[in-house]
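Lab meeting, item 3. Inverse folding demo.
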């Protein structure tokens, strides 16, 4: 069976116009070409699609059944061709993005609708990881892009554009020892167990580590649950705290008496200058830059 797109278009047009001659006029062809195309299609399918009795051909039940499938098939063929053209023009087969765990509550998803509109057939995969693991995934090219907190030191291969600013807060369970103070000192923080979101690689030091003793987890949801149980204090996203009534009722935001840690961070869209980026990744970077310029 060797059915091509033109045959399907002709069949669809005959069904919609009701005759070979009307279909020929609509498609700019001679009626004999339409008739021959339909006849070849019937041979290929081993079906009679039209009863040729009277002035105009009458579609058979089999033709009506196939007609309902034809339009969708033509749409899929068009999408397939567009995607093939995009791939040949440099579109990656899939785009992998990692998001730092604490940013799951942020507006990083604002970037996805424009990506879906521009590249509707693109496979997009998103992952969440602690800051240190996100950077590793980017550097070993497991992902092409990363939404990350600003870094104190940049690797020579890193490039980035700022996309927004996020705030973290220090919290402890209201029944914990730290929560009984209006303000806590650096020494108290140092001697209290911290629940820290960190890489699974124990050799990597977490960036937001203050206490001598710490328990580690790779996501802030687990960290929040552990803090609620009074197992330690920790740093959580402000948006997570605002959106969760349980956290607001059972956690206390810690205030510090003799030091002021910086819990407000810029969020960057990061990529590696050593990676060969595809069209979708480059489009998202350009969009982030334009969005940043519009804000300024």
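The presenter then showed the designed sequence:
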């Amino acid at each position: 069976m060797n059915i091509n797109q033109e045959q399907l278009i002709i069949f669809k047009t005959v069904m919609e116009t009701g005759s070979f001659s009307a279909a020929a006029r609509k498609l700019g062809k001679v009626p004999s070409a339409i008739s021959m195309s339909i006849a070849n299609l019937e041979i290929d399918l081993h079906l009679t699609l039209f009863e040729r009795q009277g002035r105009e051909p009458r579609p058979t039940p089999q033709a009506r059944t196939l007609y309902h499938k034809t339009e969708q098939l033509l749409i899929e063929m068009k999408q397939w061709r567009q995607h093939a053209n995009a791939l040949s023009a440099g579109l990656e087969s899939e785009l992998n993005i990692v998001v730092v765990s604490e940013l799951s509550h942020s507006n990083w998803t604002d970037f996805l609708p424009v990506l879906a509109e521009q590249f509707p057939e693109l496979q997009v995969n998103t992952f969440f990881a602690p800051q240190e693991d996100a950077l590793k995934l980017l550097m070993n090219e497991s992902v092409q892009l990363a939404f990350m907190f600003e870094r104190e030191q940049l690797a020579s291969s890193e490039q980035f554009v700022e996309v927004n600013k996020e705030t973290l807060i220090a919290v402890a369970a209201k029944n914990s020892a730290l929560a009984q103070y209006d303000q806590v000192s650096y020494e108290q923080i140092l001697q209290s167990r911290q629940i820290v979101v960190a890489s699974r690689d124990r050799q990597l030091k977490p960036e937001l580590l203050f206490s001598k003793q710490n328990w580690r987890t790779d996501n802030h949801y687990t960290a929040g649950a552990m803090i609620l149980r009074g197992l330690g204090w920790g740093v959580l996203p402000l948006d997570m705290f605002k959106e969760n009534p349980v956290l607001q009722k059972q956690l206390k935001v810690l205030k510090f008496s003799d030091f002021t840690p910086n819990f407000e961070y810029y969020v960057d869209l990061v990529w590696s200058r050593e990676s060969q980026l595809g069209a979708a990744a480059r489009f998202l970077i350009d969009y982030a830059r334009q969005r940043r310029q519009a804000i300024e």
